[in-house]
Amino acid sequence: MTTTLRFRRTALAVATAAVLPFALAACSDSTKDSASGSTADSASAAPSAAASTDDSMSMDKPFGAGCAGVPASGAGSFDGMAKDPVATAASNNPALSTLVAAVKQAGLVDTLNNAKDLTVFAPTNDAFAKIPKADLDKVLADKATLTKILTYHVVGQQITPKQLENGSFDTLEKGKLTTTGSGTSYQVNGTSNVVCGNVKTANATVYIVDTVLMPK
Q1: Tens-of-pLDDT digits for all 216 residues of the chain?
Q2: Which of 56, 139, 155, 191 is the most exposed place for a label (fewest CB within 10 A)?
Q3: Which helix (H) or strand (E) holds 44?
Q4: In what side-by-side order are the strands of the sheet with 204-209?
């Protein structure tokens, strides 16, 4: 009887010793899997949150290949232009000197500087250079025609990049212009490309374009 009891106790001890390592190993693997899964889930969620933040922030900043030509500092930089009303801000950007001369010729400096919440589609010097010189000189000498063309580039509200995706806007000239595009690529009236967009001034949002817009 004593011998049988000792045999049973020995067998039970051996069985317990054999099973215990496997149970501990299984528990350890489960814990690792759980921790690993939690870490993986957190890691996969993080980029989405970051991407969402980046997308939101990018909508508040200037965009476009033409922005590379804007001075990094000074009155003509993005920070400098944000402090001045739109006509003054444009005068500090070397790429807009022809536009500024036209605005002065038409007597629109005070009108643009004193208005609130505008959007200006501002043609670059290269945009004006596409117009034959004789035609451009004729327009510059005709104040009524020049005013009509320049005010066609101005909308009486601040337009966000999102609104440009499929937009139709009334201009100060009383005409309409349309916009299409997405991301950082937009066109105005299907012909003029935005080369540097969402530029802030004290009283306007500016979209710099590569072609002069002509009212009907």
Answers
A1: 444 434 344 443 434 444 333 333 434 444 444 444 443 343 333 333 333 334 434 468 999 999 998 989 999 999 999 999 999 999 999 999 999 999 999 999 999 999 999 999 999 999 999 999 999 999 999 999 999 999 999 999 999 999 999 999 999 999 999 999 999 999 999 999 999 999 999 999 999 999 999 998
A2: 56
A3: helix 2-58
A4: 154-155, 118-123, 204-209, 192-200, 185-188, 176-182, 166-170
Q: Which amino acid is present at 142?
A: D
- Return the amino acid letter for 136: L
Which helix H or strand E contains 69, and what residues bound it?
Answer: none
CA distances from 174 to 50, 123, 158, 171, 206 (A): 43, 19, 17, 5, 19
User: pTM above the 0.85 mark?
Assistant: no
Distance, CA of 206 to CA of 92 (rounded, Å):
14
What is the SS3 assignment for 165?
Answer: helix
Where do we find the tokens 């949002």?
Answer: 205
